[in-house]
Specification:
Two copies of one chain form a homodimer. Chain A is mainly α. Helix content of chain A is 71%, strand content 0%. The radius of gyration of chain A is 20 Å and the shape is elongated. The first copy, chain A, starts with a helix and ends with a helix.
Chain lengths: 148, 148
């Protein structure tokens, strides 16, 4: 009986050592993964921003391609915020207020889907509006959950 | 006439200062961009590899999702290898043998499209074969163009 209890304990300990970040070989990979996905997304998003803000000529085709990449990339970073992956610029609040963090990440994904649709219209004003909403979603999450 | 020549020279100089990497604010961003895209791709590709090599249980749905992300990500890094973006682990040969480098990047993209199709069959042997071909494409390019 004691042996069984020891075995059960060992199994439980093993499970505890395999958190949601199990798909990453080590926590550093999860951190690098989310930072990489956010950086790629940010690069394409900022190109749309340059067009929306009149700092670059409006190129409807490029904007549509950028927006599709933004929408694809927006799905990825969140898997890199699993248990035990605290670090980088991520505030500890992410792991304490997971429901709120998920609300923000869901919101961003919804906004980027709208952004991609807006970009496909080829209308700069439509794109500007969608860019503004999406940027607001980025900022709200950064204000709450990103440190320096 | 002299004024016109000066103007033409100034315009040419401006063009020379706006290389293929113009979509990045600075060369470091291009380097970080390509490294980020390759890292995200590599993470998802290695998950397929773990299944193909029997180190992780075969999960057809996860493999198909990973392969779709790999195929999407495989399109991105190359824009980050524009003129004036030497650095990181990239060998200088990339900028000297651009046709050969492009052959490798085109090959990878074609292989990842096949990988995504193979993953959708839900057949592990089909996935293994496609994983092997894709991994061969990664390796060939790394051997030729990636330093340490």
């Amino acid at each position: 009986m004691k042996k069984l209890a020891t075995l059960a304990f060992a199994a439980a300990a093993l499970c505890a050592a395999v958190p949601a970040s199990a798909q990453f070989a080590k926590p550093e990979d999860a951190i690098k993964y989310r930072q990489s996905a956010l950086f790629v997304m940010g690069q394409h998003f900022s190109r749309i921003g340059a067009m929306a803000n009149g700092k670059a000529p409006f190129d409807a085709k490029a904007a549509a391609e950028d927006a599709d990449i933004v929408a694809d990339m927006a799905k990825l970073p969140w898997a890199g915020f699993g248990a035990g992956t605290e670090g980088g610029k991520a505030k500890p609040e992410i792991w304490k207020e997971q429901a709120k963090f998920k609300e923000h990440s869901d919101k961003l994904q919804a906004e980027t889907v709208k952004l991609a649709a807006a970009a496909k219209t080829g209308n700069l004003d439509t794109l500007k509006a969608a860019f503004g909403s999406t940027a607001g979603s980025c900022k709200a999450c950064h204000d709450a959950f990103r440190g320096r």
